[in-house]
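PROTEIN SPECIFICATION:
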Amino acid sequence: MSTEQNTLTRTKDTPTPPIRLVHLGLGAFHRAHQVWYTQQAEQDPANPQWGYASFTGRSPRMANVLGDQDGLFTLVTRSGDGDDFEVITSLVDPAYAANTTRLVDLLSDPQIAVITLTVTEAGYHLRDDGSLNVDSPDVQADAATLQEAVGDPFGFDRPLVTAAGKLVLGLAARRLRDAGPVAIVSCDNVADNGRLTQASVIGFARELNPDLAEWIEREVSFPSTSIDRITPATDDELLADVEKHTGRQDAAPVVTEPFASWVIEGEFPAGRPEWERAGVEFVDDIEEFERRKLWLLNGSHSLMAYYGQLRGHATVAEAIGDEQVRARVEALWDEAERHLTAPELKVPEYRASLIERFENPRIRHNLAQIAVDGGTKQRMRAVPIMKAELAAGRTGDAAAFSIAGWIAFLLRDDASHEIADTRAMELDGARQLDDPVAALVATLDLELADDVAAVDRIRTHVAALRS
């Protein structure tokens, strides 16, 4: 059989759903989570009703690779019992981020009911108070580019940097075409992500056109979500495994764990897939579920990312197998659990499931991948735990250790390492100061930085980690 025949491509027998969802941030997690859930939710898999058009970040590579495969890819679900290989067909149009003309056409189409995002925590360009950071160079650049375009968005073909800018452009077109309401759903690890996404989008719109901002407030909903599925980066070994087990060449497979979770609070005024058929939970109050995910899963991930690497480990499985790392993870969880009291959270069971997932020998989750953008992640993970403990009259020592691990990681080898963070310039400036610990704590949280005893506790841990 020829290579062409073995390549993963759509045929007349491959179900192709109509595009009714748009996504910003075409990465492995999106494909293992939102796209997978959407396919699982279809009542009739032979006649699917919900397809995705998904836009990459700044690089066109994945749009090109998936475009050659008509959006198809193999999802490899990997457990200790073996691998399961599934062809995902719900991604119909993999698009390049710079194709703003295509984005405008889609977002102004009344058939589009839901827009989802995975642009990382840093992609929302927010201040500490949750408002849009209008001083961000990226926000300022997009605002200048869009000053005239929001009045006439059709035919606009210049690239944009920020998610908020892209959404505002598309919503301006939707308003002009009277295409009706739509839901914008953040699927990033950000507490209260619905409200913050709303603040980012409406804040950007107000900078350009107050009438547009008012229309968005009326017509666009911003559900909040808590998402969870460990999705390591794809490597050449995975490509070879897929071809060996399926007989097909796939240049863009995704590997994931069996566990998946999606909790949603909010309304969908233009409709949505029946995600509950695939196990999605719809709740009235998501805040506690968000905290459970951010503080327990993501919080321990960040702790392991820095402390684990400082101890010479490369993966989550290696780190959790280290007794000292595991003890620090359990201590952090103990602190967090004191503030996660709702019975429906089932925290003891959740903790046990996390250990099982972390120990999965078939999932290679690289600590270096998790460590990226720690300047944003730790302010949402370890910092809230420590502040909650301090408010309760305790020291927050375990959370302080996690913060110290991040700082010690930045200061390793006399602070000569390049910082993998969208806030790299700010963090590098802070670590070069006479008191880098206090300066770096201040980049996370000014209130915490004003607590002398708290900073001293972090400083003590940093000194021990660097000795």
Q: What stands out?
A: The chain has a mean pLDDT of 95. The longest helix spans residues 287-310.
